[in-house]
Q: What sequence folds into this?
């Protein structure tokens, strides 16, 4: 490894992702990424370049761009990224940027006792008990009034769901500017109030960290589309507890300006 990229201790003792380590090492060697000065600019990489550099690998998982570029948590990162403080973002359809900086955020444990909540509806929602999907639990949290109680911005109406594409915008990571355009994003649900848009991403109980992009790209899209204040959130149901995390970006153009505003867990009164 050259002087440009030196070995670094992996965060939280992670050891890279073995299925991705060799393909990404080949990509870095093929395009001289070790020599790139990340303090000046990100390294731009296309899906076609990834395919060309990995076409000799025997398994689909070592050649498939979608699999290689899936790095939603720190544990998904290949060794060459985690060793060198790098992370990957899409910047347009079929194109990526490799960036030096902190790409991930911790999702803190909620240690406060649960709020005992009486649902807004005056009867049992029997259909809400059929199944166990993330979306179903989020719909119940909205129907019961829990979501509105936590957010504290009055009535909220479901207006956003599914995949959308981002408009063009620029942002910085450690002083380096990145411009992206027309990247596919998805939120589990978005709710609009008079002055705010609340974007909720459901999370799995086992997920303790995530790439900031998961909240940042939808935040930038809907801020530009609506002109309203955007409230990014995570939601989780674990057992009989409904958990909410509210965030804000203190500087809209700074990827790393995210901070936790508040978090609470709720339990329905029977």
A:
């Amino acid at each position: 490894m050259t002087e440009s990229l030196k070995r670094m201790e992996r965060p939280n003792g992670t050891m890279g992702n073995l299925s991705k380590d060799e393909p990404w090492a080949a990509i870095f060697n093929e395009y001289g990424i070790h020599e790139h000065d990340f303090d000046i600019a990100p390294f731009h990489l296309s899906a076609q370049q990834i395919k060309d550099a990995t076409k000799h690998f025997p398994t689909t998982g070592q050649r498939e761009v979608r699999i290689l570029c899936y790095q939603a948590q720190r544990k998904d990162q290949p060794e060459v990224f985690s060793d060198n403080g790098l992370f990957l973002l899409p910047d347009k359809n079929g194109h990526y940027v490799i960036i030096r900086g902190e790409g991930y955020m911790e999702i803190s444990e909620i240690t406060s006792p649960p709020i005992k909540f009486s649902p807004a509806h005056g009867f049992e929602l029997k259909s809400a008990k059929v199944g166990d999907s993330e979306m179903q639990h989020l719909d119940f949290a909205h129907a019961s009034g829990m979501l509105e109680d936590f957010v504290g911005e009055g009535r909220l109406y479901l207006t956003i769901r599914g995949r959308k594409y981002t408009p063009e915008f620029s942002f910085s990571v450690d002083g380096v500017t990145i411009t992206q355009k027309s990247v596919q994003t998805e939120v589990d649900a978005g709710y609009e109030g008079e002055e705010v848009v609340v974007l909720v991403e459901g999370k799995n109980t086992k997920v303790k960290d995530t790439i900031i992009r998961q909240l940042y790209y939808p935040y930038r899209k809907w801020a530009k589309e609506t002109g309203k204040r955007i409230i990014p959130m995570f939601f989780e149901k674990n057992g009989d507890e409904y958990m909410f995390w509210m965030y804000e970006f203190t500087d809209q153009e700074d990827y790393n300006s995210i901070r936790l505003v508040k978090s609470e867990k709720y339990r329905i009164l029977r």
About this structure: The chain has seven helices and 14 strands. Residues 6-14 have pLDDT under 50 and may be disordered. Residues 11-101 form one domain. The CA atoms of residues 60 and 67 lie 9 Å apart.
